[in-house]
Amino acid sequence: MPETDQSRDEAFENALELHRSGQFEAAVEAYRAILEQSLKNGAVTLNLGHALRNLQREDEAETMFRQATELPDSAAGAWYNLGNLQASRRDFEAAEGAYRRAIELQPTMAPAHFQLAAVLRDTGRIDEAIPQFRHAIENDPDLTSAHMNLGNCLRATGRLAEAAAAHRTALTLAPESWEVHYNLARVLEELGDPAAEDHVERALDLSPQPAAVHHGYAEAAATRGAFARAVEHFQSAVALEPAQFYAQVGLGRAYMRTGRREEALRTFTSTARAFDGNPALLSQLATAQWRLKLREEPIALLRRVVQLLPDNPDALVNLARALSGVWAAEESLDLCEKALALSPGRSDARLLKGYGLVEMGRVDDGIEAFRRAAADDRSWPNASLLFSSLYSDKWTAADVADLHRTEGARWSSEPRPAADYSNVPDVERRLRIGYLSPDFKGNHPVAIFHKPLLRNHDRKDFEIFAYSSPDYVDETTAEIQQSVDYWRDVTDWPDARLARTIEEDRIDILIDLAGHTAKTRVGALRGRPAPIQACYIGYPHSTSLPFIDYLIADDIVAPPLAENLFTETLLRVEGCVFCFAPDDPAWPPIEPEIARNRQQVVFGSFNHVPKLTDSTVMLWSQILRRVPDSRLRLKAAPFADPGIQERYRRLFVEQGIATDRLAFEGPSEFPELMAAYRHIDIGHDPAPYNGGTTTYQALWMGVPVVTLAGDNFCSRMGASILQNLGHEAMVTETPEAYIDAAVALANDAPRRAALRTELRETILSAQSCNAERFTRNLEDKLRAVWRDWCRQRTTG
């Protein structure tokens, strides 16, 4: 007897009832029985797929969903459910395609928009997830989870006010949801809104997971810099769940940031003991400790990880990286070789190997390692290769410039019309200047030269933003933070978020202070988030990046005849591009009697080891031979490694210099570093990469420096410093003249004695070291380029 529509409907209702009541096997049989009579029934096919999923028969379910996609009455829902199945398997690419097909067929399907947004979020594409969550809300305004997830994504991208609004909307829909109160509390805490405490208390009252609430809120407090509050909530989280690893690590971090070092170390020690057998967590603990400027503790943890996983390339590379940070270059290189033997295609191991070779002074070997790393991964310009090329004495200035152009061209960047920006083209208005750097820390050269500028910016005419991403923070970081109007810690931000924040901050001129150095964030500028983008201080060469408009320089480091070496427009300040203006003009004391009582002339260089090239060693050896009783003292962090000391002893011995005339010294704290200049009579400036900070510090301590000027920015820094201080006689143009100048100074004790007491006064009275004058001059240059941009914007 043929089946009627009524009987099919009744059969379907019976099958649905079995399904709803949890009788999945019976429901499957009932759906199959219907399909035997009516093969092209989309609703039945789709529900059969659901029942099979309930029974965890995933492959059969997928078959049903795919069949349902071919049936008009179920296609949209089938694609949606197929996407859910694929997402559960973490096949996010397939899931994304399925959700997009569902939306194409039924644009108002809120769950499909929501799930697509979730996939985009979980694959790190938060910027793309946000509009999909908004589409879900447009089609279902009462979807609380969409509002909450939208708020979380907005918070992750730094759009805190919008995030708070989204969470407040969610709260009106679900006023008793602990998750909504919790998420709103975190955003309000980061905004500094006192109402955050009310919401976290309500979340704690409602939540079955109070430890998680305390932990998440503590992280938000730490993000805002409210470390005392963070300590309280981390303590509560640990008290409730002592085995919670991340809360313990957070507590240790917060202790460190509130000056409670001993409590931090006890917390880290107990955490390491509790999770001793878990290499992944030990590695994360080591990373947290490293960022707090601890060294012995994280290295010990990473050694333990290698002990647990001796053949794991990740473990080997992580330990190698840490050891390179404490100048144990040879052991770091050995670990890199082991990692490469296990995984030959690891570009990070090859890069780290190159870095270690460069730190040992084997610059050209390092460059070869960087080239091989670039061959493994051609998706990005090799910053390490570019930076290392500045050290090499085998490359001409033209060679270095050609390499920079070749690598820089790979950072393709489309020009943005001036009309694309919301910046008001008012020539005389207060300008927003952004400084981007990973080096606002310690005694880094960028911090040393930049602090006087930040202190002297005219706040009536300029509003100052800092985008900081250091690997640790200290007193210098805090000092610089207090010197700017707006501080953004962008350490863990992806480039897209950083770029968007720069644009949302309406920065008029963005100045990068890193170029191609370590931990650079210059990639965030690729889309031109600011209408004017420049490079300054941190990288002594043209970046050759198509999205950097200006390079701030001076007439000596970038003379007119060398303009072909630069792709940027040169923005030349008056005097020297490096403004050296120490906080205390009397510190440290010079103590000239120490030099007067010395019986032998001591040459010295505190420059970084990669600058001590073979040709530099040859030059300095010739000087030592012409001043027979003289000594040479070399001080740099890599000399903490005995193997590096031995390498340089061998190089000097090959030039006929006895080892008893050489002294090597590793790193020391800043006061000891400056005090060490008392034991130096004449400073050697290396070539082709001159000293900058070290030259000024030597001169500040009364030690004259002789320099050999070259053809590009980094080889003319010594000339710029010395000529602008009125000491042209210390600037030479040929190796022979360099040797003669150093020997003449060695043979002129009265002149050296006079310079020992005069050089600091020379710096204090020099126009190029007058921070206020330097800043006004730079501000004039910045105003001039802004005027040009406004003219371009106005004329279209």
Describe the model.
By secondary structure, the chain is an alpha/beta fold. The chain has four domains: 5-244, Tetratricopeptide repeat domain (Serine Threonine Protein Phosphatase 5, Tetratricopeptide repeat, Alpha Horseshoe), CATH 1.25.40; 311-408, Serine Threonine Protein Phosphatase 5, Tetratricopeptide repeat (Alpha Horseshoe); 418-572, Rossmann fold (3-Layer(aba) Sandwich), CATH 3.40.50; 592-769, Glycogen Phosphorylase B (Rossmann fold). It contains 36 helices and 13 strands. The protein has a seven-stranded parallel β-sheet with strand order 3-2-1-4-5-6-7, with helices on one face. The longest helix has 25 residues, at 771-795. It is elongated.
CATH homologous superfamily descriptor of the largest domain:
Tetratricopeptide repeat domain
Secondary-structure-based class equals alpha/beta
Which ranges are low-confidence, i.e. pLDDT below 50, for 5 or more consecutive residues?
Answer: none
Average pLDDT, to the nearest integer? 93
CA-based gyration radius:
32 Å
Strand content: 5-15%
CATH domain class name of the largest domain: Mainly Alpha
Q: What general outline do the C-alpha atoms trace?
A: elongated
Helix fraction? 55-70%
Give the tally of β-strands. Answer: 13
Ends distance: 80 Å
Major β-sheet annotation? 7 strands, parallel
At CATH level 2, the architecture of the largest domain is Alpha Horseshoe
* Count of folded domains: 4
Might you state the CATH topology name of the largest domain?
Serine Threonine Protein Phosphatase 5, Tetratricopeptide repeat
Q: Describe the strand arrangement of the main beta sheet, using strand numbers.
A: 3-2-1-4-5-6-7
Query: How many alpha or pi helices?
Result: 36
